[in-house]
Amino acid sequence: MVIKKPQKPPKWEELVKKYSNFGGLFRITEAMINTHVSRGYPHWDKLRRLTPPQGLTSDQWWFAIKISRGSQYRPVPLKDTVGRPFVFLVPDSIQENLHAIDCGAGKSQHFSEPITNPQTRDQYLIRSFVEEAITSSQLEGAVTTREVAKEMILSGRAPRDTSEQMILNNYLTMRRIVDIKDQEMTPELVFNLHRLVTEKTLDKFSAAGRFRYTFEKRVVADMEGEVYHEPPDVKELMNRLEAMCNFANQKTPSYFIHPVVRGIILHFWLAYDHPFVDGNGRTARSLFYWAMLHYGYSLFEFISISSILRKAPVKYARSFLYTESDDNDMTYFILYQTEVIHRAIEELHTYIDKKSVELQQLQSEIKVLQNFNHRQVALLRHALKHPIQEYTIEGHQQSHNVAYQTARTDLLKLHEYELLEHKKRGKAMVFYVPPDLANRLRRLSIS
Question: pTM, whole model, 2 decimals?
């Protein structure tokens, strides 16, 4: 991934010297009246390419915008490497996204029946865990196909390489986060999450679940050595981590921060401090999920933000760079993340609606499906689309989060109806799709 560093804005001190006299400020203010910046929250790197309001230069336009933003900034306990606080504000674009998120995933939201129904929710839960595990790992360099990764997770086979191990780790971490969502954030919890996401993937296995050492200091850079970020000194990390935990537990600051914004800042905080040798990005996203579930946004069990981030990784990276290059203004990162979350929620609802329609159509066309439970119907639907797929009791158990005996009964009943064939492979029983599955279903519906 090649990222061009954004051009830094003009220095504030120089702008003040040039334009802070009464005449200059009056002219700039007059030109800004009834003039609106393009939708969003443009960084100088973008703004300098736009046509400024009549009578202003790009520098003057930026100066006026910074005056407006500066009056609304709120500081957070996170500080940069020289002690300056990070700040943010909540412009209309973020307010709009937060409203959409609250409507789509808030505590009072009436969720779709498939994810509130105990008989079907696990199917969607496993799907989201698998999706987040794969795409979060791909963001960090994992190389494998989606189908292979899904097969590895759902079949329960051991990972074959580091990429598959990363994906399995992320999957297990997502499941763990659901279990610990009610716990307060502590340094130990953060270390445990890092240990989960990096197990058996680091050059030094002992680096999992601990801070980087001084001699392991890492900068975020590209293949050519272009440095994008240099994290804080190792000696500061424990104090910074404790401050982050206090923030996560809503003990700081003294003013209200919307829970989604707080979760996003937590994501940024861990990534900025970069306290580990590797796995910082995956750990940061894990903390975000913990925060959303901890703050009561239960729909986030079913949402994958990494699947959206994976589609535009440069935008994800640039939102970090915009923040660091413009006076620690986290608004850029918050705006991008709220857009990502909003899209992820929309994709979930679209997926649920699509699957509900597909199931209704299939059930209306093939009446024999009324003889089967939702897990068996899901398997048959998958089998129709993947005629060379093989199924195991363990894989079916993992896919639907049921007991081994329940999974075994499901598959044997499908075999009894001659909708699956089976054979022995060693001691294991493997079920496979007959080539005429669709015709068999239709024949059973008629008979």
Answer: 0.84
